[in-house]
Amino acid sequence: MLDPRIFKFEGARKALGILTILTAIQAVVIVIQGRYLSVSLSELWQMTPLKAVALALSIFLSAFIIRQFLTVAKNYVLVPFAKQTTDQLQKELIQKYAKLGPTVISQNGTGKSVNLAIEGISQVNNYLTLVLIKFIDMSIVPWVILVYIATIKWEHALFLLFIYPVIILFMIILGYTAQAKADREYDRFNRLSNHFVDTLRGLTTLKQLGLSKRYAKNVYEVSEDYRKATLGTLSVGILSTFALDFLTTLSIAVVALFLGMALMDGTISLVAGLTILILAPEYFLPIRNFANDYHATLDGKNAFSDIMDILDQTELTDNHLYQAQQSGWQVDSQLVLENVNYAYPNSDQLALQDINLSLTGFERIGLVGTSGSGKSTLLNLLGGFIDGTGDVQIEGQRVPHLSQVDWQNNLQVMPQDPYIFHDTVRANLAFYTPQATDAEILQVLQRVGLETWFNQLADGLSTIIGDGAVQTSGGQAQRIALARIMLDQDRRIILMDEPTAHLDIETEMQLKETMLPVFNQHMVIFATHRLHWLAQMDWIVVMKDGAIVEQGTLEELLANDGYFVELQQAMKGVNRHA
Amino acid sequence: MHDFWETIKHDHWVFPYLKKYKALLALIIFLGFMTFFCGGALMFTSGYLISRSAQKPENILLVYAPIVLTRAFGIGRPSFRYAERLTSHNWVLRIVSVFRKRLYEIVESGTKSIYARVQTGEMFNLMANDLFKIENMYLRVIFPSIIGWLLYIVGSIALGVFSPIAALIVLLVLGLNTIVLPLITLAIMGQRDAQQKQVESHIYTDLTDSVMGLQDWILAGRTDELVQRQENDFKRLGTLQTKDDHFDWWRNFTSEIIIGVVALILIIFATITFGHSQLGVNWIAAFGLVLFPITDALSSISQGFGELPRYTDSIKRLNDMDQQSQSEQNQQLSQVEAPIANEIKLNAVNFAYANSEAIFKDLNLTIAAGEHLAVLGQSGAGKSTLLKLILGDETPTNGNITIGGVNVGQLQEHRAEIVSVLDQQPYLFDTTVSNNLKLGKLHATDTELWDVLEKVNLKNLVAQLPEKLDTPMTEAGKRFSGGEKQRFALARILLQDTPIVILDEPTVGLDPITELNVLQTIFETLQDKTLVWVTHHLTGVELVDQVIFIEDQGISLAGTPEDLLNQSERFASLLVMDHGI
């Protein structure tokens, strides 16, 4: 039930220790509360005047208040510990994300990563507070009560002790049945519950097909099917709660009957009988509370192991092996890759195989190949976001991978969809150069051709852009990425991953005019499907199935008449006039 | 809190259904009431039973009634609870079916045939989530509150039978639990909720920024800053949550103390009322124990009220949507049958979206039957708008658009018989391949399906699937590549078999070789149809008869590809650029 990793957190033992002590005190208080309520009631039953019973009644009430107070105190002990622990986990998780890098995160799923850091953490918090309290309650309170009942009348204690495992057994049996039924229905159930969102997403298509009006009826019918399926599963699913409820309530009723018999025989006194009757529900209360939160327990446990799994993932270490010899990338700097291989995790196919590359100074390198040929993977490797095998040397220094701080300080990346932060125009543009002045930013805005767009913004450089604020088109986002590159004069290596794939041809042409001057005094590695860029490249690398099949200057490749020419013909497409 | 009452006052989504399905609702309330009633009654009769037994009655028959009742209540409580849970879920899911249909109809009436980027899947998830929240509101707030109040009132009245004064006192003291505390909770939570939501949305934006922009953070060497920022966000939320927690704990504490006090009052009342007779004293234990099993029902009201502000947004969003769609209900033109001729004509069309600059001024265009037209232009120039106008999704501010001489506004009901659309994101539903294709022609035979699959070069692929035509597409067609998805959509359009096909950038996102293959298949299979093809670059432009450029609120350039190549320097240079080296 408890994950042993919990005890490794700072303060865990102390918090759990105090919690255990408080719970033990509470258990005793519960017994006192039950006892004195019984004493009062029994005295009153003997027609003792109210005044004479005042002391017993006030002990009952005091115990009652102390018991409630202890509940609050337990929260005050455990919640800060849980909060401190989850804060710590959250921080470690974010740090880990930053260390693992974008490639691993997108393999894990972006949405899932965000969710885990928010929802997941909150579930763990829930698990640590609610569940721990209830777990400790369950481990202490019933047994203290049982021992006390045994001192009054051991037969009843024995009955209560005997019924406990029966309840758990029934819960497990029925729980399994429900699980089996749920598993069988799961597929159908899932499909039906996703159907609504699926339909809404496909509405445009339905509208095009002229079916959208008619489909409303279908939405209703599927939803009704879903209702029936849910009720089917639910009627079994809540059976285990029913069994728990049924057995505990029935046990109390049985206890009451036995007590009645015993009282009629005169074998016990009323006060003893009442005490047992009052304490019997208290005996079952912890397990009922625990069962009610069973799902929170499962969710929390799963989220906890998900988080721990991510924290246990290996990250690239030795990030400081490469020490830059001169300030930034210079005309004589060299990067050499020899026999580099890479396979994605859980895949036995090489995504990059036997890569040999030697890149020097301010070369412009074009990277071509079909989708899936390994262009993006190679760029990720060069960016230091994945770790291949083989030999890598920067400026003659041998490194295990390119996740080197000094190397990454030279890099800039222009992806297919540059990410626009939900932040001001200023912060977005000066992301790599927070010290840039407004004048510099404005100048760059003009150079990348964003002036017209910028002039219509309400708050100038302080306008918030990005998701949920002022939106940018694909072309504008690329221009912003370009502006980031322009503002940072110190970074001299630009990795481009099909930056113009989503743009219309005229926008691309305009952007190209702005981009070409930026390429001067930079090393550019440019992956593209658009062949016109190749005329501006010094060196072209042709990839197929993760391997480099040809490399050379454009002229050499054309003269070669190999795979590149084949690719070029295919891309050029139909030519009716030829 | 004011916000909350306003929302409820103008609500026509959530609360009206309570009235509409009142019979079932009454059943739920009854079952819920009985659950707690049996719980209380079990302790009540047990208390009486053992007190009476302690007097050692000479005949067991004297306690026979309480013995039977104890058993009955013992069995009744869990049974009622089981029934209540099933009934309430049934009720809620019934409402959800109605909700879904209603929501679907609202969204449907506002959807255009041309894919709009703003309508993301996320928005739909949000709507589904809203429905889920409202389900929860019924189950966690509304039902428990009504049941709690009912117990409170019935209990007080029952007590009033014995002693009106005691009933009044209990009514007042328990009122703290059932009315005063919930209202205080609502007031405090309502206020905090706004603050909390703000911080939460901040965290979400920041974290999304961190994860989506991770590459930039790492390269810029600013990851420490990122961790720091995130930590601050979480701390702010933590502080707010701690306040919430403390309030909750002490409220529950107060609520329990009130219960303790009321239990004491009941004992005193029972002693005063029944404590004088030999038989009467047996009632003291009964009254002393009756309250404890009901505690949950009474304190859950406050808890429910604390959650209410969380649901307000969902209720508001649903209500707002309703209003929107009502205002969108435009005056429908009388609908006519599809014409036989299918020449598309735009006569002096002017168009502007509400409160923005004109997109078209005095646009004239004729697309002859069987013509293949490519529409070029920069993004934002109005290519998509042109398609919407032709489809009748938008109505020109001036001028008119006809197909075969009939105003497109009058063709909406039968539009799917004359115009089909292939866009950049054709949706493949989470059902079988066959069902997806049949959306194009509902009663298509398997032979017809295989026939079109062969035309779009998918026959082999589908033949290799484990269940052939009956293989599920999996959600949103993730099983297939981009090119294959387009081919499936094309197959659907072949089945729909309309004389006019609109192609809205169908090959965006495909690599050039796949793109070319798909385009060739499109033009081959749709050879004899009128085609209006919006494209953002020139791959495959040789396949059409006519090219137009949309620019500056009209057509800036028009002609056959050959003519344009020879006469327009701009077209020629674009074509050279697109073909590259």
Automatic annotation (TrEMBL), chain A:
CDD domains: ABC_6TM_AarD_CydD. Its main location: membrane. The chain crosses the membrane at residues 12-32, 52-70, 127-151, 157-178, 236-261, 267-285. InterPro entries: AAA+_ATPase, ABC1_TM_dom, ABC1_TM_sf, ABC_transporter-like_ATP-bd, ABC_transptr_CydD, P-loop_NTPase, Type_1_exporter. One of its GO terms (molecular function) is ATPase-coupled lipid transmembrane transporter activity. Residues 335-570 form the ABC transporter domain. It is a multi-pass membrane protein. Pfam families: ABC_membrane, ABC_tran. GO terms for biological process: cysteine transport. It comes from the Bacteria. GO terms for cellular component: plasma membrane. Keywords: ATP-binding, Membrane, Nucleotide-binding, Transmembrane, Transmembrane helix. NCBIfam families: CydD (TIGR02857). This is Cytochrome D ABC superfamily ATP binding cassette transporter, ATP-binding and permease protein. It comes from Weissella minor.
Automatic annotation (TrEMBL), chain B:
It is found in: Cell membrane. The keyword Nucleotide-binding applies. SUPFAM superfamilies: ABC transporter transmembrane region (SSF90123), P-loop containing nucleoside triphosphate hydrolases (SSF52540). One of its GO terms (biological process) is glutathione transmembrane transport. GO terms for molecular function: ABC-type oligopeptide transporter activity; ATP binding; ATP hydrolysis activity. Residues 26-310 form the ABC transmembrane type-1 domain. The chain crosses the membrane at residues 23-50, 137-159, 165-188, 257-275. It comes from Weissella minor. The keyword ATP-binding applies. PROSITE patterns: ABC_TM1F, ABC_TRANSPORTER_1, ABC_TRANSPORTER_2. Its main location: membrane. Residues 344-577 form the ABC transporter domain. It is a multi-pass membrane protein. This is Abc superfamily atp binding cassette transporter, abc membrane protein. InterPro entries: AAA+_ATPase, ABC1_TM_dom, ABC1_TM_sf, ABC_CydC/D, ABC_transporter-like_ATP-bd, ABC_transporter-like_CS, P-loop_NTPase, Type_1_exporter. One of its GO terms (cellular component) is plasma membrane. It holds the Pfam family ABC_tran. Keywords: ATP-binding, Membrane, Nucleotide-binding, Transmembrane, Transmembrane helix.
